[in-house]
Amino acid sequence: MTEPTGDAPYAELLDVAREAARRAGDLLRDGRPADLGVAATKTSPIDVVTEMDLAAEKLITDFLAERRPDDGLLGEEGTSTTGSSGVRWIIDPIDGTVNYLYGRADWAVSVAAEREGETLVGVVHAPQRGETHHAVLGQGARCDGRPVRCRPGTTLDQALIATGFNYVQTTRDAQAAVVRALLPRVRDIRRSGSAALDLCDVASGRLDGYYERGTNHWDYAAGDLIAREAGALTGGLPGRAPGSELLVAATPEVFPVLQPLLAELGAGRG
Q1: What own/partner pairs with CB < 8 Å and gap ≥ 24 does 145-149 have?
Q2: How many other CB atoms are found less than 10 A from the CB of residue 46?
Q3: pTM: predicted TM-score of the whole model, two decimal places
Q4: Which residues lie across from 12 on neighbouring strands?
Q5: What's the N-to-C CA distance of the chain in angstroms?
Q6: Taking Cα atoms as reference points, which of 21, 27, 38 lies closest to residue 97?
Q7: Would you call 145 helix, strand, or coil by DSSP?
Q8: Residue 227 burial (CB < 10 Å; 0-12/13-18/19+)?
Q9: Cα–Cα distance between 44 and 167 in angstroms, integer?
Q10: CB distance 77 to 91 below 8 Å
Q11: Per-residue pLDDT tens for 152-187?
């Protein structure tokens, strides 16, 4: 691996991530066919993959293979290579595929680079929103070049919380029960359909918190870093890192109350 040098040690990785996300976003925005349909399903008949998911992941992986041939790759649509550099790219070509399928704006390209399990850079590019969030480890978070910080000073009862739902029915039933119990204790609940964008919205102060069960590493790798670099706290079940059993991100005031409450309500079960 050729290590970037200078004041921003991960500048090269960030440049590559931003360009990969931009190219994929251009393809997805400008190349979306009018008759876009489902190419495959995953965990259930409503957990879909479109032909554009596949095309965007190929575009990103081809670009990374050209620019960073020694790095490893992990992509949502099946790409997985080990690499020899110690750097691995975590790619979600469309986070919010159902939104994209329906022509809604809440979808994004998520690209992150990690080494030894630590995320170094993350980019979440949302073409239909017209914005790009990015973060570099230890250097803060930005949206379209402007620094962002999470919303300060909110109590749980005044907090706007986002969540998402799994595509497996038994898990959805359990998640609905958690929402029923949580809703009276917060300002309100939102559901965007994109974990990456929910994490960026926590970073930018558009949400006070977000939680979800059933997310994958590619769903949150970039967004988790962006949220943390904007001052938010993130985790899984109490004492655990974010993972498929639970992902929680919130302001420093909300997180210590929300995380144990979610565990008590059974958000990590189902």
Answers
A1: 148/203, 148/204, 148/205, 148/230, 149/203, 149/205, 149/230, 149/231
A2: 13
A3: 0.93
A4: none
A5: 42
A6: 38
A7: coil
A8: buried
A9: 6
A10: no
A11: 989 999 999 999 998 888 888 999 999 999 999 999
